[in-house]
Amino acid sequence: MRVYRLCHADHQKLDGEGARLYGGRWNKRGLTVIYTSMTLSLCVLEQLVHLDSDLIPTQTVAMTIDIPDHLSQEHLSEMPSQGCMTFGNQWIQEKRSLSLVVPSAVIPVEKKRLNQSASQRL
Predict the structure, then answer these.
(1) Are strands 99-103 and 73-75 parallel, antiparallel or unpaired?
(2) What is the pTM of this model?
């Protein structure tokens, strides 16, 4: 499966460090996860909803990541009732699968993918 990630040119390492330092919708600070989307256009939309149009980063790069289909993944068809962060934290801590496919908060019929970093899986 091919997924996409937008990030600053200086932050292309797939180590989950940004999510570990700052947290996200699906993880609290201290837990590593890599946020990706199933389409490049969804990556753009997910970032634009958090930015002032005058502050769009100029050194953003698009990453294409191929994840072998045989690796473990879990799918959610809707947002979890206990909340995204609670569900995501539990998923990360239990190391249930390499990736979690979730609905986008911006366009729920579109899918995002959370990927546990290699260091988190060890």
Answers:
(1) parallel
(2) 0.84
Neighbours of 38 (CB within 10 A): 17
CB atoms within 10 A of CB 36: 25
Under DSSP, the state recorded for 108 is T
Helix, strand, coil % over all residues of the chain, rounded to 5: 30, 25, 45
> What's the Cα-to-Cα distance from 97 to each of 6, 17, 42, 83, rounded to whole Å?
23, 19, 23, 19
Question: Which band of pLDDT confidence, cut at 50, 70 and 90, is reported for residue 36?
Answer: very high
DSSP SS3 for 42: helix
